[in-house]
Write a structure and sequence with these properties.
The structure is a single chain. It contains 13 helices and 5 strands. The chain is of the alpha/beta class. It has 2 domains: 192 residues, Rossmann fold; 148 residues. The protein has a 5-stranded parallel β-sheet with strand order 2-3-4-1-5, sandwiched between helices. The radius of gyration is 25 Å and the shape is elongated. The termini are far apart.
Length: 348
């Protein structure tokens, strides 16, 4: 049976090859369903290894997006830092690659400095590969009303290196770059990528004998994951109970703890803080006992429950949420470690 994730990677590979078969296009825009863009990260990781679909060099830039001009300045800084780091690693392995620093002459605006450095970088890349240099502009955070459209407009209006390509994403139902691709249709390749994530989750969950308890648990857990993504609290409770029933039958207390954490998260999401804290207390009490008996994963779940409880408490208006009781707190050195994590979460 073909791995479901490998099937999805093949979908992205076909989309990328379709884009690269049209050399006049400079911008690739992929439209993902909400919560499916993480699959792009898997694709980019694969392109850095021996299973890459092409010789293209993908450079991922996750610079936060606030204002487009400051974004280009910060992105240039991030790009040059990343390149310097890679050059240092190459030098340590006896591979010397010469590349000039980013230009900074007086009077040049941010766009001009950025484009000049791209030309320098592209010339260097061309001496080592016949692939394209691909800048993946994937901001890790975006301020309200900020978009990549003015950034991409400024770049597409310039004389970019012939072997440079840009890769960006958009979200189905909340698209921000459709107008841009309409204005630069001769430069843009735009495609909706249907990854069918929920189908992937169900396929992965179904691997194995359909009557085996672990398979049944994974199937219910997949439904629980879907319910959490859809913010459907009634379904979360239903599928969590099914998971917990199997955990009780099979004596899987740590898995049961992870299910309780999922339910607590759903309660916090619906501002039902009392019920969330009840779940967090339950996880702490059960996981602390297991950790004392030598179960390391149980200790990790306990820390997650402490952090979740702290976040739950600080999220309440005027501190009205009940706090985790002293009797639930871990003791000894373990209490100190948990306290350090908790102080970071609460800012104390």
């Amino acid at each position: 049976m073909t791995n479901p994730l490998s099937q999805r990677m093949a979908v992205l590979e076909r989309h990328w090859q379709a884009f690269r078969r049209r050399p006049q296009l400079r911008l690739c825009r992929w439209v993902f369903a909400p919560d499916e863009q993480w699959l792009l990260s898997l694709f980019l990781q694969e392109q850095a290894g021996i299973d890459a679909v092409s010789n293209d060099i993908f450079v991922v830039l996750r610079t936060p997006l606030q204002h487009w001009q400051t974004y280009l300045e910060q992105t240039l800084e991030d790009l040059t830092d990343a390149i310097r780091h890679d050059l240092m690693l190459l030098d340590q392995h006896g591979l010397s690659v010469e590349l000039a620093d980013a230009p900074n002459p007086a009077g040049l605006d941010a766009v001009s400095r950025f484009v000049q450095y791209l030309h320098q970088l592209s010339r260097t890349v061309r001496t080592h590969t016949d692939g394209a240099l691909v800048l993946c502009l994937l901001p890790e955070s975006v301020e309200d009303n900020a978009t990549l459209e003015p950034v991409l407009t400024a770049l597409l209006q310039r004389d970019l290196p012939p072997d440079l390509r840009l890769l960006v994403t958009d979200t189905a139902g909340a698209e921000q770059l459709a107008t841009l691709c309409g204005r630069f249709r001769t430069d843009c390749y735009s495609s909706t990528v249907d990854m069918q994530l929920q189908k992937v989750i169900r396929q992965l969950a179904a691997l194995g004998s359909p009557t085996a308890p672990d398979v049944k648990f994974r199937q219910w857990q997949a439904e629980l994951t879907t319910a959490l993504a859809q913010r459907n609290l009634r379904d979360v409770q239903y599928f969590a109970n099914n998971c917990l029933l199997i955990c009780g039958q099979q004596n899987w207390p740590v898995l049961a703890g992870s299910v309780h954490l999922s339910v607590a998260y759903a309660y916090v999401d619906h501002r039902r803080f009392e019920e969330a804290l009840t779940r967090y207390r339950q996880v702490i009490e059960q996981m602390e006992r297991l950790y004392e008996a030598g179960d390391a994963p149980a200790g990790q779940l306990s820390i997650m429950a402490w952090l979740g409880g702290a976040e739950c408490t600080t999220s309440c208006v005027s501190g009205s949420a009940p706090s985790i009781t002293t009797s639930a707190r871990p003791t000894g050195p373990k209490r100190y470690r948990t306290g350090c994590w908790l102080s970071k979460a609460t800012g104390d």
